[in-house]
Amino acid sequence: MQNSISKSELNRSLAQAALQDQQRHKPSKFKSWYKALLLPVIFLFICEFLVRSGAIDAYLLPAPSSLWQSFIDLAHADLLTHIYISTWRVFAGFAIGSGLGLLFAIGVGLNKQVEEYLDPTFSAIKSIPSLAWIPLLLLWLGIDEGSKLTLIAIGAFFPTYTNTVAAIQNVDPKLVELGKVYGLNHFERIVQIILPAASPGILTGLRNSLSLSWMFMIAAELIAATQGIGYLLSDGRETSRPDIVILAIILLALLGKITDTIMKAVEQWLLRWRESIPK
């Protein structure tokens, strides 16, 4: 009894020591923000110095301090409209492309015959550059929203499709056999075992699809658009306004980071069940 109590106390002490060590080595939020912002701030100071000293002409690279006024001017004009239009296109194209990618990937991942029919074609189409689609889509769908959404959907389709197929096919066969032992039918094994086990890979594909949707959105808006952040990039180039081009790039970086952070939070929430698994 004495040995049992001593062993229990020893385990409790070790657990408390491990927790204290983890908290001691856990980086504070201030340090994380400091490290994340250090490089951009240094870059901005270097750009400001080079422009103010005349080493770089202002018409090629405006001083970072002057961008605030350009942002105010755009905000008083139609900046919010451009942001809304681009964001709507991204999420609409992402929903269409990733939704179709999930449907086809589940069929290919679960059925070898479906894989033999579809996967070679999808693998070939995946290698086509995004800009190669634009002339064909303009011929078929014109310059309206259809061509832009289709291009974004194409960009969102393949990361979701590729990651989902790989995740499903890499599910441990022992888990499937365990489902058979417990008497689960084919559909129940898919819903209760295969898809949950493949969910980390599926969610990774969705995050990659969302990031790629922003890239394809720019490709679509640079070619044929009168609104959107891609249009701002093109308009800034044509009017020799590097400040507008830089602000559009910064907006893209911020919007992409925000949407990726949201997707990451959703991913962590959906995969919270993994925390209860004993390691």
UniProtKB/TrEMBL annotation:
It is a multi-pass membrane protein. Pfam families: BPD_transp_1. Keywords: Cell membrane, Membrane, Transmembrane, Transmembrane helix, Transport. GO terms for cellular component: plasma membrane. The keyword Lipid metabolism does not apply. InterPro entries: MetI-like, MetI-like_sf. The keyword Magnesium does not apply. Belongs to the binding-protein-dependent transport system permease family. This is ABC transmembrane type-1 domain-containing protein. It comes from Acinetobacter ursingii ANC 3649.
